[in-house]
Amino acid sequence: MRSGHSGSSTIEGIVIVGDIGTRSSRVLLKYTMDATNAKRSDTVDKLRKLFSDPKFCPEPISAYIISHDDQHMSEYLADGEKRLEFVSGFSGSAGTLVITLEKAFLWTDARYYIQASEELEHPFELKETDATSETPGQWLAKNLSSGDRVGADPALFSCSSWKELRSEMRKTGVNLVEITTNLVDIIWLEKPPAPSNPVVVLPPKYSGLLNLRGSDIEYNPVFFSFVVIHVNNGITEVQLYCKSSQLPTPEIKEHLKLEGAKIEMHQDGTTDVTRTVHLGVPTDYQKECFTRVLKGVIALNTARFPQKLKSYVLDAFARRALWDVGLEYGHGTGHGIGAYLCVHEGPMSISWRPRPDDSGLEADMFVSNGTTHLII
């Protein structure tokens, strides 16, 4: 709180005006919208105007879905791909925006409820995501009318997620349509340019399909490219496309022709680590939660199961001790790790939500154990 003159104080956007210290004090509460909120509202209004612009939407749409992801379904993004953050102010690594003609919502998971409540600005409202809550597609199916059209950029959705959205909305006659020109890009006048950093070559023994790494996304050793794999006359070919500016030296270009290019150093595995450190004296409740999380970690680490078991089946091992006393956590339990790649690597993941590309767990796979409980 900041004290002002003549009995005026300001508390996070609420202005209190009054003659403090007198019986006849008059206090007027007035909510003020700051410049940032006004900017978000203006951005949403600009998007809504495009809903009926025939240059971008051949037929008018009633809602627009903004995915967090880029064209590679990346969790962490280059600055110019952060469309969801540009529109809403939310900077978390997972989420979906739905903007209708009258409403604007963000769906995200339990990792980001606190962050979203702090970062979201008018006119956005938070929708929580768990096993029992409505998905964006289900909400749109229930709140729009039969025949309404919902637009989205298909390049920013996986095939499976697009089909799921379309299926959910079709149940009530709502149509999901492709808007191939991203509407956010139309109004994002100062969008950061795409990065074009040099590519790094790893020895093939450390890699899978490709032994290339980059730095186009902060803290993620990847670069923007597309690989096309096809069989031609029985010969398998791998074709790589990326910007020529990312191949600045003859040595790096030459590796595309030769196998086994050598470098002096190899970056090791990549994952995230979360630890809880109590600064004070924990309560009995906190001790109980910590103990039950530990039981879940041990149960998952010591689980025995057959080869090719779908990884989501193991999720209950981690949660059982919490479930016994009515506790839960709203995010997944475990994920694959990268070899000089990204923090979260698939297709294996231990979560209550099955993955269509989960091929089952096998020996020598690395999967994290993130059993937890969030006390808010």
UniProtKB/TrEMBL annotation:
Residues 267-369 form the Peptidase M24 domain. Transmembrane segments: none annotated. SUPFAM superfamilies: Creatinase/aminopeptidase, Creatinase/prolidase N-terminal domain. Signal peptide: none annotated. Residues 61-180 form the Creatinase N-terminal domain. Coiled coil: none annotated. Gene3D superfamilies: Creatinase/methionine aminopeptidase superfamily, Creatinase/prolidase N-terminal domain. One of its GO terms (molecular function) is aminopeptidase activity. It holds the Pfam family Peptidase_M24. Keywords: Hydrolase, Metal-binding. Belongs to the peptidase M24B family. This is Creatinase N-terminal domain-containing protein. It comes from Nesidiocoris tenuis.
